[in-house]
């Protein structure tokens, strides 16, 4: 018997997406584009050009510079997103949109509010710097209602455990690295607008945070999780601050990235004791009070320790 072969008729479109992150004062700002006619926000994307570039990262750097004028610092591949339903317009024609996504950091000026947006505009429940986010008072009752609509006892138990783990309910602490898992739970419960674009996800509650086109908010949540995790074992934060900086400036940047307020004296002891910085010489300009000393990243620490990162405190909700 000869096995029948199946010829794939679907077209696969492949592109490169980038979560390009910069810091402005107390905000972490990804570069955001807007679709024509005030459509949902999108992340930058460009063509995959295998004929012109042997390495995809070089491909990414070139089109980002061409489109935005930005020179990227640290770049790493984030994830490949290719699930069905990413773009309903393509799905109707049997197409599949596959995006190879990257996380990129830059020291470029992020003051232009037309292109750079605070990432907490899109995921407001992730910012604990001023205490427990008020938006959780909207989220948790709807998550409880979603939990109680479980089809059986096992699903009820699973949903309850996920809510407790991801949103710090009860004795559980808030794990800042679980950004992606929290967004995916909110999507599953129908609490983000993107979930409502599918016919099987009817509206259940007011949507939380600003929506993005396609699954770009999921891509952004993935980048936040990755970057927060790396803070603990890689000195990536120094890709976002100027070559010389004050300890206050470094602390505010880490707080903005992690969504956690740090104890100033403990933070300074940790940074200095860990050998992460060294004096750069000369005080910072100041209009009042004692001028702050300037520091720079001490590159020697990369040879001294395998994981020179910054520890973050656990949050109890």
Automatic annotation (TrEMBL):
Domain of life: Bacteria
InterPro entries (UniProt xref): NMN_biosyn, NUDIX_hydrolase-like_dom_sf, WH-like_DNA-bd_sf, WH_DNA-bd_sf, WHD_NrtR
SUPFAM superfamilies from the UniProt entry: Nudix, Winged helix' DNA-binding domain
Domain NrtR DNA-binding winged helix residue range list: 237-297
Protein name according to UniProt: NAD regulator
Native source organism of the sequence: Roseiterribacter gracilis
């Amino acid at each position: 018997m000869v096995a029948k072969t199946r010829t794939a008729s679907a077209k696969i479109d492949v592109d490169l997406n980038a979560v390009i992150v910069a810091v402005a004062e107390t905000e972490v700002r990804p570069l955001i584009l807007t679709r024509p006619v005030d459509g949902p926000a999108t992340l930058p994307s460009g063509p995959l050009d295998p004929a012109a570039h042997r390495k995809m990262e070089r491909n990414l750097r070139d089109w980002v510079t061409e489109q935005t004028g930005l020179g990227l610092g640290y770049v790493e591949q984030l994830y490949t997103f290719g699930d069905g339903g990413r773009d309903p317009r393509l799905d109707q024609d049997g197409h599949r949109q596959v995006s190879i996504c990257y996380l990129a950091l830059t020291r470029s000026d992020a003051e232009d509010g037309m292109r750079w947006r605070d990432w907490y505009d899109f995921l407001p429940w992730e910012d604990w710097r001023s205490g427990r986010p008020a938006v959780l008072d909207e989220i948790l009752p709807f998550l409880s209602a979603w939990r109680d609509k479980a089809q059986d006892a096992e699903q009820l138990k699973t949903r309850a455990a996920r809510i407790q783990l991801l949103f710090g309910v009860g004795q559980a602490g808030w794990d800042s690295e679980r950004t992606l898992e929290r967004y995916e739970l909110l999507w599953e419960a129908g609490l983000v607008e993107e979930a409502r674009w599918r016919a099987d996800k009817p509206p259940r509650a007011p949507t939380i945070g600003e929506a993005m086109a396609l699954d770009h908010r999921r891509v952004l949540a993935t980048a936040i999780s990755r970057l927060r995790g790396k803070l603990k074992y890689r000195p990536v934060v120094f890709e976002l601050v100027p070559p010389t900086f004050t300890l206050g400036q470094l602390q505010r940047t880490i707080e903005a990235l992690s969504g956690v307020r740090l104890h100033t004296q403990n933070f300074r002891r940790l940074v200095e004791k860990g050998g992460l910085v060294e004096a750069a010489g000369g005080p910072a300009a100041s209009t009042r009070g004692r001028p702050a000393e300037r520091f720079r990243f001490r590159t020697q620490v990369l040879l001294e320790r395998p994981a020179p990162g910054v520890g973050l405190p656990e949050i109890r909700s």
